[in-house]
Structures are given as structure tokens and as C-alpha cells.
Amino acid sequence: MTIHFNSILWRLPMCKDCGCSTATHPLFPGSQQKLKISGTIKSTRKISIEESLFQKNQNNASENRQFFATEKLKVINVMSSPGSGKTTLLSKLLGEMKEHYSLAVLVGDQETTIDADRYAKQGVLAKQINTHAACHLDAKRIRENLVDLPNHLQLLVIENVGNLVCPAVFDLGEELKIALLSTPEGEEKPLKYPVLFHDADVIVLSKCDLIEVLNYDLDLVTKNIRSLNPSAPLILCSTKSGLGISELKETLEKSLSLKENAYVPGHTSNAHIN
């Protein structure tokens, strides 16, 4: 199956100010070309400002990546739609992993500390980042919030704002990208939002206990994902049954070369950081 993408539509603004509309990507070969807008100089200036914001984030992400490497800190960026089960899955996964690794979570939401509180109930150290009007986390926010975390962490998990578009193109300096798709979202979602699934290092299909109830076409969603990303591990998970949790843990350990014997449990506070 051949998938055609409209590079012009990709260049149209998806956010008011964030600069994601200036991002380029191999999936959209025409995206390097300037979009012709009939209008005033103000339109041209707006594109220049957006490009500057996006490039600044890329520079900040490079600095983050260098810092993480120096600190030997493994960083994962988890992205999905709102309500796909990120927090439920990660709190269960990290609730087990914290017994073997020094870890923390940065949680992105527009408002509230609901998700950070949920991590805390599992004994996982979490810092809430409220983005307010912003639709994604950026590299600068990540770096600013590192100061509140303990030294000598082995693993940092970033739960990005629920959004399949902007988080996919904003590099945070992470080593591993996880794309999470839930069964209630349907089988076509990867084709509608291809960048995230194309770039993901690991793809998780969540809420798999609903496959029979929803008459979900597992073969079709697999075909759609593989048309974009032939090689990333595809892990079927259910927090209700426990399906895939161990497999996901082992995949992350292998992909990140985590050293279990480097940590003595009990050194990390179970409280959430205000």
C-alpha cells in the first residue's frame, strides 16, 4: 500500500505560536519548500518567528541530550492521545521498575496535578509540569524542571501532553520515543498521524483487553503501523490483565542498556514534587 501525504497541509499552522508548522520531516518531502501565502509582510514575519522558535527548541534539545549523556541518564518520551492510558500503564510499569532502578517521571498536562498524584500513589517520584495553553512539552521546560529531581537518576520518563501532532516533532533530547495507541481509538489512527508512529522506537497498543469487545482488527492496525515503521517493537498491553507489562519492561531495559545492579531500592522519595 502506498501512502500519500499532502506536504502543503503539513505546513499550515497547527498551533498559534509554537512553531510546529515549520517542522520538516522525511514523510513530507515537499516540506522544505516555502509556503506561498498571499497577504502582508506580517504573514512572512510570523513564519520567521515560528521557525526561530522551532530551531531554538532543537538547539535546547541538543544541549539536553549532551547533559543526559554526561549524567548517564536514560530518557524516554512517551506520546499518545489524551485518554489512551499513558498514566495507568506507566504507573504500573514504573511501580515495578522502581524496585530495581532509580527513576522519576515528568508529567505534562495543561492543568492540575492529577496524573502526578496517581504516580505518587504507586510510589513513583513524579513532577507535574503544567503547560497551560501550550499543547506540548519543549526542551527548555524539561531542562528547567530537572533541578527538582534527585541526583544520580538512572531513568527519566517524560509523559508528554496528550496530543499526536506537536509532541511528535518537538525533540526533548530523549534517547527513546514511545508511541502509545489504545484500541478504542481505532485501527486507522497511525495513518492519520504518521509522524509519531514513523519515528517511534517502541510502539505500544494499550487496552488490549477490549479487542474482542470492540471487534478490533489487530491485523489491520499492525499492517497500518508497519507501513510506517517496519522495525519498532510492537507490544500489546493491558493494565487490567497485566498483558505485555513484563515484555515492555524487558524491551526498555534492553534498548536503554539499563544496569539493574547499580541501584539500591529505597533511595528515592515516594512523594510527588510540587
Please provide a written account of the structure.
With 274 residues, this protein is an alpha/beta fold. The protein has a domain at 73-262: Rossmann fold (3-Layer(aba) Sandwich), CATH 3.40.50.300. It is built from eleven helices and seven strands. The protein has helices spanning 7-11, 41-71, 86-97, 114-121, 139-145, 166-169, 189-192, 194-199, 211-214, 218-228, 245-256, and strands at residues 74-80, 103-109, 126-130, 155-159, 176-182, 202-206, 234-236. It has a seven-stranded parallel beta sheet with strand order 3-2-4-1-5-6-7, sandwiched between helices. Helix 4 (114-121) links the parallel strand 2 and strand 3. Helix 2 (41-71) packs across helix 5 and helix 3 packs across helix 11 (245-256).
Instruction: Report the β-strand fraction as a percent range.
Output: 5-15%
Q: Tell me, rounded to a whole number, the average pLDDT.
A: 86
The CATH architecture of the domain at 73-262: 3-Layer(aba) Sandwich
CATH class of the domain at 73-262: Alpha Beta
Quick take:
The protein is of the alpha/beta class.
Q: Which helices and strands occur, and which strands form pairs?
A:
Blueprint: H1 7-11, H2 41-71, E1 74-80, H3 86-97, E2 103-109, H4 114-121, E3 126-130, H5 139-145, E4 155-159, H6 166-169, E5 176-182, H7 189-192, H8 194-199, E6 202-206, H9 211-214, H10 218-228, E7 234-236, H11 245-256
Parallel strand pairs: 1-4, 1-5, 2-3, 2-4, 5-6, 6-7
Features:
274 residues; seven-stranded parallel β-sheet; 14% strand; Rossmann fold; 38% helix; 7 strands; disordered N terminus; 11 helices; alpha/beta
